[in-house]
Amino acid sequence: MNKHARQLKIREILQDHRVGNQHELLQHLHSAGIAVAQATLSRDFAELGIVRSRSEGSYRLVVPDDQAGRIIKGLVGVEVLSVNANETSIIIRTLPGRAHGVGSYFDQLKSPLILGTIAGDDTVLIIPASVQQISALITYIHKNLSKN
User: Fold this and answer.
1) Which helix (H) or strand (E) holds 38?
2) What is the pLDDT of residues 8-44, one digit of tens each?
3) N vs C: which end of the chain shows fewer Cβ within 10 Å?
4) DSSP, residue by residue, 8-34
5) Beta strands of the chain (E only): which ranges?
6) Crossing angle between the packed helical segments 99-109 and 38-48, to the nearest 10 degrees
7) How far is CA 2 from the centre of its chain?
8) Ordered structural domains, the chain, with CATH
9) Backbone phi, then psi, for 44, in 5-degree steps?
């Protein structure tokens, strides 16, 4: 199965089923006859902008539409506690357990200012594409955390 077809199936599964994590999604894909590696699924998540959203007391994986993207922007802004930088990188502190969602949010923006992100439990490391653009990247991050 090619990437496009696999990603369409992922969207379909997430619309039709309440899926809480990647492991559950892998099971749904396997039941549909689709074998996919965890690393491939993680790349699909980043490309599709899939995030974990809290709903009715539990978490659910969702693919945001444009309006949901604005809502997610506001939610991500609430989850971020601080943004700090040195000469080479930027650290975003989040509420416990929310760093992955914040990192994924910035990955899906596909900014040329961001070389990559690494997320832990409550910390996201953002590596700039150029250290000369740290201040521009900090401004970009704050703009994308605002609730507007």
Assistant:
1) helix 38-48
2) 889 889 888 889 888 999 999 999 999 998 888 888 8
3) C
4) HHHHHHHHHS---SHHHHHHHHHHTT-
5) 51-55, 58-62, 80-85, 90-94, 114-119, 123-128
6) 60
7) 23
8) 3-62 (1.10.10.10), 66-143 (3.30.1360.40)
9) -60, -40
